[in-house]
Amino acid sequence: MTQHYFFYKKNIQIKKMKKEIQFLKDQVFKLRGKQNEDKVHQQQSMVPIMKIFSSEQLKKLSGSKPTWTPSDIVKALTIRSINLKAYETMSKIWNVPLPSTRTLRSWMKGFTCSPGIFTDILEIMKKNSNVGTIFELAVLLFDEMNVDSRVVLDTTFDKVENYKKVQVAQIRELCSNWKQPIYYDFDTNMNKEILLRILSALTESGYVTCAIVSDLGGENRGLWNELQISPEKTSFSNPHSPQDLIFVLADVPHQMKNLRNHLLDDGVIFKNGTTFGKPLLENMIQMDNGLELKLCPKLTHRILDIKGSERMRVRPAIQLLSNHTAMLALKLFPTQQEISNFFKIINDGFDVLNSRSKKNTNPLKSGFGVNFANLIKLRKLLYSIRFLTKTKKVPKKALLPCQVGFIVSINSVIKLYEYFKKRFGIEYILTSRLNQDSLESFFSVIRNPTPPEFRYRLRLIILGGRIRPPKNGNVAFEDSDLMFISSQLLSKNPKLKYLYNY
Q1: 320 — phi, psi (to 5°)?
Q2: Per-residue pLDDT for 501 more than 50?
Q3: CA nearest neighbour of 213 among 262, 179, 241
Q4: Contact at 8 Å (CB) between 151 and 162?
Q5: Is the pLDDT confidence value at 351 over 60?
Q6: pLDDT higher at 407 or 85
Q7: Which of 74, 52, 56 is nearest to 488 (CA)?
Q8: The pLDDT value given to residue 481
Q9: What secondary structure, in 3-state letters, does 177-210 show?
Q10: Contact (Cβ atoms closer than 8 angstroms) between residue 121 and residue 171
Q11: What is the DSSP letter of 96?
Q12: DSSP state at residue 65
């Protein structure tokens, strides 16, 4: 009896435990289902984050140790090149998964950015050139900027430096939107020997240099003389590829500023003897203020009285030499149409020489390929006018350098279009890619550095790849970024990292 009761009681306990086990199994099943649902939900919620962050950044977010790829480094250098404090705020305070600044410095050590031609970058470009296509057409820009002339110690090269200026050469693609610094040197003028070395390096890298662009400072006018450039001869054969012509242009925005300066400082005279200058423009402003509806609100005394660094800005020159000024002159001086024609022809010619898109609401600002008549009118005007001497106010006998530069640029643009239309079948040219705006924007980001600072900032920009110049810079800037080819190729081709000793 006792034994039977014992087994009965045990059976009841076993049944109870089986129920508990089944209950726990059901709970486990439910929890696993919920866990799977949570995992799917987590993965779905991670999709937007995965579009923003790389796999290594996600590792850092999860607490694992990341192994940064060249693409991650390039993205980080992009932010670092804009501002160090912003980078540290994002990394340390906002906890954005970014490499430490020490990691960035370690990665950049392999690229010392020595003066001269950047052979490493050209090697990367050589491996990615589109030989035989329009995407191999390169425009070479060069100009100089002032550097801080204090005596400083460069710890990278372990030497004391004291320079006043730096010469920089940059190439940009004529038929696509990339730019790349390829040369710099301190206290060096661009001469024929250096130019030919750069052209040789570009030819060996698979690129066809179709044009060179510079301002018309004294040193560059000397280079033009060495190359025998004139309004009649605006190109020369590439000595390393004789079948290729290289067209020479003067930076058009620079020539606009110089025309404006001579107009305000000296005055101009037409073939019929009509003269005008700053006094007449001041009278036009007063007369326009007296009208019921102002025809030219942007024409102000502030534009006429600009001094110092303000003269370096292009926008005031464009506002003065504009269609609005032409309309006001026609309204005020209907019997002297040469004055209004002066402003209109220069305005229309500049629009043609500064096109930035294939199609524009203003046909003159569309890609160049049909607006030959406007350039021919501008060329005829520049040949016909003479600026006055400062003291005696008599016509100067010769054309000024800015007039010659404009005429050479006009002839080069027309011949370049015809030459490459025949060779590659191109439909149009964005003529803004034949001026120095991208190089001037680059200078505005570097800003008055010491030589070591120049090297460091240049290296950051080359490796980071994206810069945004200040809004109040000297030149117009419409692109959201400057995409340097070196950073694009490094981020897309990690195998090329050995070129930077990484």
Answers
A1: -75, -50
A2: no
A3: 179
A4: yes
A5: yes
A6: 407
A7: 74
A8: 44
A9: CCEEEEEEEECCCCCHHHHHHHHHHHHHCCCEEE
A10: no
A11: -
A12: P
Instruction: Note the pLDDT of residue 263.
Output: 95
**What is the C-alpha separation between 350 and 344, in angstroms, rounded?**
10
What's the whole-number mean pLDDT along residues 339-364?
92
- Name the percent of the chain in helix, strand, coil, to the closest 5: 55, 15, 30
pLDDT of residue 224 exceeding 60: yes
The position carrying tokens 């067209």 is 247
Determine the average pLDDT of the residues in 215-223. Answer: 91
Q: How confident is the model at residue 135 (pLDDT cuts 50, 70, 90)?
A: low
d(CA 344, CA 341) in angstroms, rounded, equals: 5
Q: Give 45's pLDDT tier (boundaries 50, 70, 90).
A: low
Give the 3-state secondary structure of residue 63: coil
Closest to 378 in 3D by CA, of 357, 356, 402, 394: 402
Cα 356 to the chain's mean position, in Å? Answer: 13
The SS3 call for residue 386 is strand
Question: What distances in angstroms separate CA 227 from CA 84, 191, 235, 413, one per listed residue?
Answer: 44, 10, 9, 18
DSSP designation for 495: G
Q: Is the pLDDT of residue 330 over 90?
A: yes
Comparing 274 with 39, the larger pLDDT belongs to 274
Quick one: pLDDT at residue 499?
40
User: Alpha-carbon distance 220 to 238, whole Å?
Assistant: 18
CA angle centred on 393, ends 322 and 335, rounded to 5°: 50
- Rounded to whole angstroms, the Cα distance separating 165 from 147 reads 5
412 in Cβ contact with 248 (< 8 Å) = yes
Query: What is the distance between the alpha carbons of residues 341 and 333, in angstroms, rounded to a whole number?
Result: 11
Task: For residue range 412-455, list pLDDT tens digits in order.
Answer: 999 999 998 888 888 889 999 999 988 888 888 887 889 988 98
Q: What are phi and psi of 179, to 5 degrees?
A: -140, 155
Cβ pair 350, 322 in contact under 8 A: no
- Count, residues in the chain: 502
Per-residue confidence band for 471, with pLDDT thresholds at 50, 70 and 90: low
Q: Is 110 helix (H, G, I), strand (E, B) or coil?
A: coil
| pLDDT value at 54 more than 50 | yes
Rounded CA separation 416/46 (Å): 52
The residues, ordered by sequence, that sit 6+ positions from 248 with a Cβ below 8 Å of its Cβ are: 211, 212, 224, 227, 229, 234, 235, 236, 408, 412
Beta-strand pair 179-186/165-173? antiparallel
Q: Are 67 and 56 in contact (CB under 8 A)?
A: yes
Pairwise CA distance, residues 39 & 45, whole Å? 10
Instruction: Assess contact for 486 and 124: CB atoms under 8 A.
Output: yes
**Tokens matching residue 429:** 């040219």
